[in-house]
C-alpha cells in the first residue's frame, strides 16, 4: 500500500519556508548596524571609489546620495562632511578622486563638452580648474602627489593606455605637512 502525501501540506511547507527565509534575509540586511545620517560616511545610496589623504584625516569618495554623481569629502577626525563649494557642477559626472597630503587638493575626472578631463579642486580657493583641456582621447585614474605639484593619469591619446605626468610648476602653493621644511626643487 502506497502512502500518499497531500499536495496541500507540501505547498504550505514551501510557503512558510519562503516566508521565514525572506524575513531572516531582511533582518540580516537591516541598516541598523550602518550609521545613516548627515554626518555619516555610509548612506542608503551608492558610495564608491574612496581615497584617503596622506595624513589619514580625510576621505573623498563618489556618491549619488543627493541625486547626482558627485564627490564628497569627509573629515574622519571631526566625523563631518567638509563643504566643497564649486567642486561638483550640475549636469556633470565627477569620479576617481585623489587627495593630496592634507586634503587641500582633489584631482578627479569630470566631463567637459562631453569628454573626460582631469580637474583639480583647491579647497583653499574653493575653485576647480581643468588640467587637461588639450588632451584628445580618453583619460582615466588621476592621482595627485602628496604635495600637490604633480598629477599622473592614464591617457589613450596614442591608441593605447599610457601614463602621463603633469607638472603644475614650481610656483604653486604646495600642500605640505604642518611644520615640514620646504626644499626648493633643483
From TrEMBL:
Pfam family, one: PD40
Domain of life: Bacteria
Listed InterPro entries: 6-blade_b-propeller_TolB-like (IPR011042), WD40 (IPR011659)
Gene3D superfamilies referenced in this protein's UniProt entry, alphabetically: TolB, C-terminal domain (2.120.10.30)
Family label: Belongs to the TolB family.
PANTHER family recorded: PROTEIN TOLB HOMOLOG, SLR0505 PROTEIN
Protein name in the entry: Lipoprotein LpqB beta-propeller domain-containing protein
Organism of this sequence: Chlorogloeopsis fritschii PCC 6912
